[in-house]
Amino acid sequence: MTEQELAAELQLMGGKIITHHIKKLSAWHKTRRPDQEPPKDKWLIWILLGGRGAGKTRAGAEWVREQVMDNNKKRIALVASTYNDAREVMIGGESGLLNIGPEKDRPKYISSRRRLEWKDGAVAYVFSAEDPDGLRGPQFDCAWADEFCAWSYPDDTLSNLRLGLRLGGEPQLVITTTPKPLPGLKKLMLEPDVKVTRATTKDNAVNLSPAFMQSVYEIYGGTRLGRQELNGEIIEDREGALWTRALIDSVRVDAAPKETQKTVVAIDPPATSGSRADACGLIVATRVGFGAQARVYILHDATVQGLKPDKWAALAVKLWQQWDADYLLAEINQGGDMVKTMLDAIDEQAPVRTVYASKSKVARAEPVAALYEQGKVKHAGSFTQLEDELCMMGAHGNLRKSPDRADALVWAVTDLLLKPRTHPQVRMI
Q1: For the domain bounded by 245-428, which CATH number is listed?
Q2: Which residues does residue 140 pair with via DSSP β-bridges, in sequence order?
Q3: Which of 241, 245, 267, 328 could lock 224 by a disulfide, CB 3.0 to 4.6 Å apart?
Q4: How far does the chain reach from its first CA to its final CA, in angstroms?
């Protein structure tokens, strides 16, 4: 119900006694973010996927409060990983049910019976995912389930909970959780009556410690753990892929050494241009050391999509200048001599070397993935889209799009580590 509808209803009732309640209710409506608002379309299950501190608990608690105060719900299920989590987060936490809304409207917690009681007779019963059978028998007209992906028995607990949602016209369930690639979650998200919203830790930065925000993003930003725990993304490894998330995280460093031997800008050009064309892969990489001690550092991903050939060629030349690269390394399968001609037209001083692919993308990538396993390739920072493509290379099933970023990286690493080379003078970047 919108604020205008509430006001109209109040006028029709001619009641001044609920004015204070409506003003308080509207305060949350005004401050909540769109991702904390229940979906406007019809739904039976609303899943709010969010990072740590993203405001999931507040959204779940406010939804339960609204069901009691406005929708006359009387029997509510509250399900957490453990009874302690339910008490400390869903009920007694800073954003829990005992600490939101006007004090006169707040429920009373009966710890001995594990239940919340409102003055109007509504009751919320507390359950633990460690005891799925505890949900057998009771019935409810709405439910809030918190941190589903941390449940000990997610499938059994959820099925028993859903079977208990059988009171009222449309008993609804809200699930608030930091996501993990659980089969049960992925299956649930595909159901027609399930709506999903997402929130990141940054979305709620105004309510979090600046020191916390700075430290967690410095430590975990861009990593697999950070994308899951801060961005609320479902991050998983694909069966058969040449790279895993753990492997990439293991080779991540803050920066490359200043002394380098060779730097290249690798180009994987698209066959066509336009918004639906493949991207132009542009990767900057550098080599440090010689022989068995040689290492390659991935410095920058400048991949672009939708640009005409003269535009991406100009960007490649600009990267060569900015990174003081030794040369441009361009695959010519798609454009042949046109690629080199285009680059020469932008800047004839820019040295260009060309490579031609005689093997498949996966076959070319296999020895490069082996170099990662040996710790000979490092990522100087986080490259989210590039790393997503690497973790799809070789995976079972067809890729939705060409892995242009990954292919450019493979060309760069192959050139810097897998081809015979001389020992040029040490250079500085």
Answers
A1: 3.30.420.240
A2: 165
A3: 245
A4: 60
